[in-house]
Write a structure and sequence with these properties.
The chain contains 3 helices and 5 strands. The protein has 106 residues and is α+β, with helices and mostly antiparallel strands. The protein has one domain: Alpha-Beta Plaits. The chain has a 5-stranded mixed beta sheet. The relative contact order is 0.33.
Length: 106
C-alpha cells in the first residue's frame, strides 16, 4: 500500500466517524474473481461503495464506513483472492455520502 493510502485510512472524521476512500489497485487484479472477492469482503464488514474493472487492467473502487472497518477491509483486498497479486494501491480520501450498500459496477 502506498504511504498515501496508509495515511488516508484511519484519519479521524467529524461526520459520525465515517470515511470514504477512492482506491485504485494495480497488479493481477482482473480475471481472477477480484470484484466478487471485494464484494464479499465489503458486505461481510458492512462497507458501502462500489468496485469495477478499468480498461487499463486496474480495479477501481470507492468504499465507505468507519475508519477501523476500512483499515481492515483495505488489508483484506490488498491480499485479494488466491489467484490475484496486488502490486500497488493508490488511495485518496473523499467526503462520505452515507453509502451503506456495496455493488459491482460494469
Amino acid at each position: 500500500m502506498s504511504e498515501q493510502a496508509e495515511d488516508a485510512v484511519g484519519e479521524s472524521r467529524q461526520d459520525g466517524g465515517r470515511q470514504r476512500l477512492h482506491l485504485r489497485l494495480n497488479g493481477r487484479v482482473q480475471g481472477v474473481g477480484f470484484r466478487w472477492f471485494t464484494h464479499r469482503a465489503a458486505c461481510a464488514r458492512g462497507v458501502g461503495g462500489w468496485v469495477k474493472n478499468m480498461p487499463d487492467g486496474s480495479v477501481e473502487m470507492e468504499v465507505e464506513g468507519p475508519p477501523s472497518t476500512l483499515r481492515d477491509f483495505v488489508e483484506q483486498v490488498k491480499k485479494g483472492p488466491a489467484a490475484a497479486r496486488v502490486d500497488e494501491v493508490d488511495s485518496r480520501e473523499m467526503e462520505p455520502r452515507g453509502t451503506d450498500e456495496f455493488s459491482i459496477a460494469y
